[in-house]
Amino acid sequence: MLFRCLSKEGFRDLVEMTLETIEVVGPKEIGRDKDDNPIHHYLPVSNPDELDFDYATTEYSAKTYFLPFQENLSTYRFDEDDWTQDIRYRIQPRAIIGLHACDINGLLKLDKVFARDFFPSPYYISRRENTFIVGIDHEPCEGGFCRSLGTDTVTHGFDLFLTDLGDRYFVAIGSDRGFGALQKVHAREITDEDTHDYLTERQRLAGLFQAEVPVHDLGTLLDIEFTSEVWEKWGRKCMSCGSCAMVCPTCYCYGVMEKVSMDFERGVKQRQAYSCNLVDFAEVAGGHNFRPDSTTRLKYRYYHQHRGFVEIYDEPKCVGCNRCGRTCLAGISPVEVITDLQMDEQT
Ligand code: SF4
Ligand code: SF4
């Protein structure tokens, strides 16, 4: 990988130049919670000052810019004995600046499903390829257990990745277009001092990230604990609202609906985000529901994150961001559920 050093002014120029041509999205403070902590979302910005890199996490992940909650897959129109279909992919470029390593790792997992598997999605790929991604190093967020899952660092999946060295950024270059962008703002070659400062900062950050959850061999533990009372304990609390899947950077379940106009002349096929915790997720034609209670649905979500996905892609789907734990009104946190399972095995 190539590295460069970029002054803070140079970075500001880079954002301003980008804003002149494409939409720029980044962490933006949108308000305060009851404890007066700032709340951030990834939102479009109109100038570099709106980007707040001093953020712990965002409520929603950046997934929505690649897999929107709802999108039209196609529209169609009937014309006498014929019909025409219109399919549009997003090709307008966009930059997302300030993603943390766990969220870039989340995109890499989505890539495996939507860009590299048997049935790649052109809708996802068009967004992914037309999005310029700039990551940034950060201190751990509350409740995050990314270190346990190895997602606190990232080596690819971005165009540029910044580490703040106080008066300048140490920049890892992850693509040709990242390299080209840095050329325009005269980033310089790194010196021994830059490398030394970067390694010192990386060491400081690594010391702050602690492994929170013992996930080693979690797949086997899940197999053993399939009938554990732990599922009942947490499943009874679940209100089946689906919020956990909506904020999760890697949950990708969806449904497809067809809406036809009253005159039967035109229609639209829509993809809509869904959640395996919703009551009718496993309902099939005829009305039978394979997972009628919240306990089995909650269990399924954990099995997909840490068991099923591992079987197919050799890694968990979860990146340990704890967005699901923070958003859950029933207080269901992945750290507590997994720790309970570990405890149950020992008793
Ligand atoms: S685990 Fe929490 S956020 Fe997820 S569906 Fe259940 S109540 Fe909602
Ligand atoms: S399951 Fe929860 S902790 Fe894991 S990636 Fe999704 S939101 Fe983050």
When the domains are counted, the total is 2
Class derived from helix and strand content: alpha+beta
Which runs of at least 5 residues are low in confidence (pLDDT < 50)? none
Kindly, what is the distance between the CA atoms of the first and last residues, rounded to a whole number of angstroms?
48 Å
Helix content: 25-40%
Concise summary:
By secondary structure, this protein is an alpha+beta fold. 35% of the residues lie in helices and 23% in strands. The protein has an 8-stranded mixed sheet, sandwiched between helices. A 4-stranded antiparallel sheet has the order 5-4-12-11, with no helix packed on it.
Q: What's the layout of helices and strands?
A:
Elements: E1 2-7, H1 8-21, E2 23-32, E3 38-45, E4 70-79, E5 82-86, E6 94-99, H2 101-114, H3 122-129, E7 131-136, H4 146-149, E8 160-164, E9 168-173, H5 176-184, E10 188-189, H6 192-208, H7 218-224, H8 229-235, H9 243-247, E11 254-260, E12 266-273, H10 294-313, H11 323-327, H12 334-346
Parallel strand pairs: 2-6, 6-7, 7-8
Antiparallel strand pairs: 1-9, 1-10, 2-3, 4-5, 4-12, 8-9, 11-12
Helix pairs in contact: 7-10, 7-12, 8-10
Bound molecules: iron/sulfur cluster (2 copies).
Description of the molecule:
With 347 residues, the chain is α+β, with helices and mostly antiparallel strands. It has two domains: 2-68 and 87-208, no CATH class; 218-346, no CATH class. Helix content is 35%, strand content 23%. The chain has twelve helices and twelve strands. The chain has helices at residues 8-21, 101-114, 122-129, 146-149, 176-184, 192-208, 218-224, 229-235, 243-247, 294-313, 323-327, 334-346, and strands at residues 2-7, 23-32, 38-45, 70-79, 82-86, 94-99, 131-136, 160-164, 168-173, 188-189, 254-260, 266-273. The strands form two sheets. An eight-stranded mixed sheet has the order 3-2-6-7-8-9-1-10, sandwiched between helices. A four-stranded antiparallel sheet has the order 5-4-12-11, with no helix packed on it. α7 packs across α10 (294-313), α7 (218-224) crosses α12 (334-346) and α8 (229-235) crosses α10 (294-313). The chain is globular and about 65 Å long. The chain starts with a strand and ends with a helix. 34% of the residues are buried. The protein binds iron/sulfur cluster (2 copies). One iron/sulfur cluster (SF4) is lined by residues 247-250, 305, 318-324, 334.
